[in-house]
Amino acid sequence: MKLSSVLAAIGLMLGLAVPVAHAADISGAGSTFAFPIFSKWADLYKKETGNGLNYQSIGSGAGIKQIQAKTVTFGASDAPLTTEELKKAGLVQWPMVMGGIVPVVNLEGIKPGELVLDGPTLANIFLGTIKKWDDAAIKKLNPSLTLPATAITVVRRSDGSGTTFNFTDYLSKVSATWKADVGAGASIEWPVGVGAKGNDGVAGNVGQTKNAIGYVEYAYAKQNKMTYVNLINKAGKTVSPTIAAFQSAAANADWANSPGYYQILTEQAGEQSWPITAATFILMHVTPKDADASAEAVKFFTWAFKSGDKTAEELDYIPMPASVVSLIEKTWATELKLK
Amino acid sequence: MSSSEIANTATVDKNGSLARARVLRSMRWGDVLFESLTRTAAISVLVLLGGIIISLFIGAWPAIKTYGFDFLTTQRWAPSLKPQPVLGALGPIYGTLVSSLLAMVIAVPVGLGISIFLTELCPHALRRPISIAIELLAGIPSIIYGMWGFFVLGPFLAEHFQPAVIDFFADVPVLNVIFAGPASNLSLFNAALILAIMVLPFITAISRDVFATVPVVLKEAAYGAGCTTWEVVWNVVIPYTRVGVIGGVMLGLGRALGETMAVAFVIGNAFKIKASLFAPATTISAAIASEFAESDGLHQSSLILLGLLLFVLTFMVLTAARLMLMRLERNQGK
Fold first, then answer.
1. Nearest 5°: phi and psi at B122?
2. Which residue, A44, B262, B307, B319, is the most exposed by fewest CB within 10 angstroms?
């Protein structure tokens, strides 16, 4: 009985191992932000083609390290590498999918989209120089709202994250003080506030704390029906976080003239552009160790660009605009050496 | 077995004695094998420990080289500063020590109270249910404590407990700084409270077990001499079991110092040291858990150095406990 069950288990393991060995193994690692869409795409792709994708969401920094060490077929990072870094590591980079970062508040009597902030004011709140909700700078932007004379509780991420990188990159662009004193990064020295773990942690803590402000991915703000803040963009227009506003930011970025697609999508031009838009970048080797796996990965990305848009939007991600996709496909053809 | 007996059996049955010698020899081999197996197990722990220390040291070396002793006295934690990050461990060390000590201040009296009640005062019918409930507390994974602290305890304390305490101590010097506002869902105090709940079962279970070892004769003699329950506990039970109780407390302290997930959820992860217990802080393990995934270079090396410091800190606490126990034992001998 025991022996037979052991044999059965071995048989099962072999049985399972065979199809895995046959399928082309695409492995990727990195961005936790892009994990939900990658796993959904992988699911659909597997159903259509039978080829699997194994994606480990270990964080952008770790993803870059993994692709540099050639342990995965592709890496995914929320912050692009510079041209020099790409050249040094022999990597090709392109943006795969986008998301928006949205300031959210918990203020009694204020509905989503009612509160308006501009970049410098947002930076001063996160710097701790604006301490109360009825501060003159906030009042000036919101003459019609009655704001409480209470202290602002700042909620931010405690874990290193691409969301924080893009949010602080935006604050660095709109506030010289922020740029000089704090800077942009996945983990930074926060002047004020409490740290919560992950997007869900920030969303949960803002939801529980009266008079709090935080920043989360668009998907979390939308799914938790949080009170998002409207922002004033580079063109001086007040915009709401919508898919159209995120795509406008991507469309206004000058991808064609940025080697290695080095574009951070915060504070882009365009009347409709949402100022804190972010992209996840894919990193692959120019001459990969396993050319077959890389070719399979490119097939997967081609499929994702062609038929993954609807899925992305369902999960509140923003697909790349068609103009950018055709640029990327040209890059694959010219730069990747897959035999 | 004496030599004459061996000689006797040898004359009675030569073959039998040979067989016996063989069996004995093989048994000796068994002993040798057993000894070397257990020795290997013991040595492998040492090797493992040494390996961990060495690899921590190698990983931490860039940070040690860059910051030296300043790492221990710097409060800034700015991993993204250009051109080079400024990193110091003072905030996490402070948070680790204060949250653990505060947890012990809360958990030790409560834990001892529970075990005194269980061994001296509790009706028999209640004894088992209370014991089992406390042991179950030890079996709850720390992430559950973290989530409970984040979603339930934190908001409750911030809404009801903290404002009351802040108001109450508003005019008392010193205490109005330690319990200064504003109230916060995530704070050093909340972390200490969660830690206290987590170490409570350790302290209770061990002190209950050692209280049960007090000879009944001693207690009955004290009661016979007219002592109250309090006097029996204070003058007979606790002195008799002091070493064991301290051992339990140290075990709890060890757990509190290293606890990661629950603390990372509720402490608010702020590196700046604030005088108020109701302000967010961070601990060594919470800082490592939060930042390691997205770290590289000097930042990652500094996180590994933090790990090494926690190692040293825990070792120092355990050594201090050992020394204290040794002194107690010597004093008892007098």
1. -70, 135
2. B319
Q: Residues of B with CB below 8 A from A201's CB?
A: 150, 265
CA–CA separation, B180 and B94 (whole Å): 18
- Is the dihedral angle over the CA atoms B74, B76, B82, B85 positive or is it negative? positive
**CA-atom Rg of chain B in angstroms:** 27
The closest CB to that of B186, out of A184, A185, A205, belongs to A205
**Burial of B12 per CB tally in 10 Å (0-12, 13-18, 19+):** exposed
Between CA B276 and CA A160, with CA B70 as vertex, the angle to 5 degrees is 65
pLDDT tops 80 at residue B4: no
Q: In the structure encoding, which two tokens stand for residue B2, read together?
A: 């004496």
The residue whose two tokens read 């365009």 is A270
Supply the DSSP string of B249-261, one letter for each residue: HHHHHHHHHH--H
Contact call for residues A218 and A99 (beta carbons, < 8 A): yes
* Single-letter amino acid, residue A128: G
CB under 8 Å to A11, separation ≥6 — which residues? none
The pTM for the full model equals 0.82
CB contact under 8 A, A159 and B184: no
Output the DSSP codes for B170-237: TTSTTHHHHT-S---SS-HHHHHHHHHHHHHHHHHHHHHHHHTTS-HHHHHHHHHTT--HHHHIIIII
Q: What is the pLDDT of residues A83-108, one digit of tens each?
A: 999 999 999 999 999 989 999 999 99
Instruction: Using CB atoms, pick whichever of A60, A153, A189 lies closest to residue B78.
Output: A189
First and final C-alpha spacing in chain A: 52
Element (H, E) at B77: strand B77-78
The closest of A192, A45, A64 to A123, measured between CA atoms, is A192
Element (H, E) at A77: strand A74-77
In the 8-state DSSP scheme, what is residue B173?
T
